[in-house]
Design a protein that fits this description.
With 302 residues, the protein is of the alpha+beta class. It contains 7 helices and 16 strands. A hairpin with a 5-residue loop joins strand 1 (44-45) and strand 2. The longest helix is centred in the middle third of the chain and has 24 residues, at 141-164.
Length: 302
């Protein structure tokens, strides 16, 4: 499987899809993972139906600074529940990670070209329709805080996955150490990005690989409200198991929700032991309105 250098996305080889012998059952929809503090004391509903984490409200974040507040929020998440969902389904939803104001501020970055190192028009590369921009270093403080705070607990999950799949790479606990590994191999370009879709736009199924060193999990945050700001544009995951048809998941997200998902492979327990399944992700056609997404990838690009 080779990388597409000009747009930096790997869409796989269509020959990977084999003629199926068995149709796999559709797994039950995963539960939404609530923060650990909510599991202990019970969730309090926030506007829009997302659960609010005590101590990390919008007012609390303003008091300590948004970046510091989001790091506290991430640290308090129910990471065992997240790991369980990732192991069972290949993705986990974190509701209301960003506030409405934070989503609006993040989406407004798209119109500030000085923040980005490159812009990709998807139709020019056969990736779909729409566009996205990669942030340059230094990253905006909120994105840097999210990337750093998420990496540590995800590295523990990633190491367990690689152990189960008998893959040699292991990931350090600190993100700076992992980035040093990437940079030493020539992967020095930052990969966090903002995606923008208008009516008729879509994103083909793909994998965000970018080079030799690949962190096996990534995250995306929806910055607009479905049904209000746009229609359609669902986040989609496909999972290809050996000698089986590909299984599709449509991931339900609201504004501010984060989805954490597998970049390319994940381990699955079979009747004869652990085997590896291949995942791709994309976005269905936007029927109306506009949609912005923040993508957080932990390895840098060559």
């Amino acid at each position: 499987m080779s990388n597409v250098n000009n747009g930096e996305l790997d869409f796989g080889d269509p020959q990977d899809e084999r003629k199926p012998r068995v149709v796999p059952p559709v797994a039950p929809a995963p539960r939404v993972v609530k923060p650990a503090a909510q599991a202990a004391v019970g969730a309090q509903a926030a506007p829009g139906g997302n659960a609010a984490l005590p101590g990390t409200s919008a007012a609390a974040r303003r008091a300590v600074g948004a970046a510091a507040g989001i790091a506290v929020h991430v640290a308090a998440l129910n990471w065992q529940g997240i790991a369980d969902e990732l192991n069972a389904h290949g993705y986990a939803i974190i509701p209301g990670l960003l506030t409405d104001d934070e989503c609006r501020d993040m989406a407004a970055h798209y119109a500030q070209p000085q923040l980005f190192r490159s812009r990709v028009v998807m139709s020019q590369h056969g990736f779909g329709s729409g566009e996205y921009q990669y942030f340059r270093y230094p990253l905006p403080s909120m994105i840097s805080a999210l990337r750093n705070a998420l990496y540590g607990p995800l590295a523990a999950i990633a190491n367990r996955w690689h152990e189960l799949m008998d893959l040699p790479d292991r990931f350090p606990a600190d993100h700076a150490d992992f980035l040093a590994r990437c940079h030493a191999a020539g992967q020095q370009r930052p990969t966090p990005l903002l995606l923008e879709y208008k009516a008729g736009d879509y994103n083909c199924l793909h994998q965000d690989l970018y080079g030799e060193h690949v962190f096996p999990l990534q995250a995306a945050v929806l910055l607009n409200q479905p049904g209000k700001d746009f229609e359609g544009g669902e986040f989609v995951l496909t999972e290809q198991r050996p000698r089986m048809q590909s299984r599709v998941e449509v991931v339900p997200l609201k504004r501010g929700d984060m989805v954490i998902f597998a970049v390319n492979h994940r381990p699955v327990q079979g009747t004869r032991g652990i085997y590896r399944v291949n995942l791709r992700h994309g976005v269905s056609r936007l029927r109306s309105g506009s949609r912005h997404t923040l993508g957080i990838i932990f390895h840098d690009a060559n």
